[in-house]
Amino acid sequence: MAGDPGTDLEDLFDKAANFLKNIAGKLDSDRLLYFYARFKQTKEGSCNTSKPGFFDFQGKQKWEAWKQLGQKNKQDAMQEYVNELTRLEPDWLEKCDTSTQQSGSAFGGVVVSTMPNPDSDLKDEEKTIFDWCKEGDLEKLTKSLKKEGADINVKDGEGMCLLHWSCDRGNEEIVKYLLKQKANLNELDNDGQTPLHYAASCEHISIVQLLVQAGADVNIQDFDGSKPIDTTNNADILAILNKNS
């Protein structure tokens, strides 16, 4: 309703979010993540998605920034967003071209996604079994495995096998397939970490459960002396690992 402070703040927030596109190029990653987290909190509420894989650097940064807001309410998130933009650009509202404003903001990850991403695009013919595993394409992974006659426990340059990668990416379907193919549950990467270390640190609860049920050793320490239980604060995962330690 007209004059409602909440509605006024929402209108201001939408204008701020649209204006931010104009200056995003001169902001550092920390500032972009600050805005991203508050945008997500406003539009979707508290973060309730699984933590991205260990090697999804950009995804983890965005997830962690959002997760840190906890139960912050929508109004506070919007106000902090507007306040920070005003601190950076005191006259942003005057500069704002209202004729180009849209009903919804285009800033919700688009700008943050311009940060460097380590994953490069490859043509299908250039992809390996590891690429198909990372992408979660079980059909092409199985075809590639058969075509190459590869060992199910083959490792890449990081010492990671397919089970490591599927646990990192949280692909339960591929994890189940690899377990059926007798993949080594306790294979170590170059840091001495098992697939269970990856599943636990990335907070993929169902995969942690699958690995433990299949007989994964919960007490293996990596080269820094950390067990899988030391890599997470997730209560559900802690309960599973404690029960089986």
UniProtKB/TrEMBL annotation:
Gene3D superfamilies per record: 1.20.80.10, Ankyrin repeat-containing domain
Domain ACB residue range list: 9-94
SMART domains membership: ANK (SM00248)
UniProt-listed InterPro entries: Acyl-CoA-binding_protein (IPR000582), Acyl-CoA-binding_sf (IPR035984), Ankyrin_rpt (IPR002110), Ankyrin_rpt-contain_sf (IPR036770), FERM/acyl-CoA-bd_prot_sf (IPR014352)
Top-level lineage group: Eukaryota
GO molecular function, one term: fatty-acyl-CoA binding
UniProt keyword terms in alphabetical order: ANK repeat, Lipid-binding, Repeat
ANK repeats: 158-190, 191-223
Any single Pfam family the record assigns to this protein: Ank_2
UniProt cross-references to PROSITE patterns, sorted A to Z: ACB_2, ANK_REP_REGION, ANK_REPEAT
Keyword Repeat (UniProt): yes
PANTHER family reported in the protein's UniProt record: ACYL-COA-BINDING DOMAIN-CONTAINING PROTEIN 6 (PTHR24119)
Name of protein: Acyl-CoA-binding domain-containing protein 6
High-level lineage: Eukaryota, Metazoa, Spiralia, Lophotrochozoa, Brachiopoda
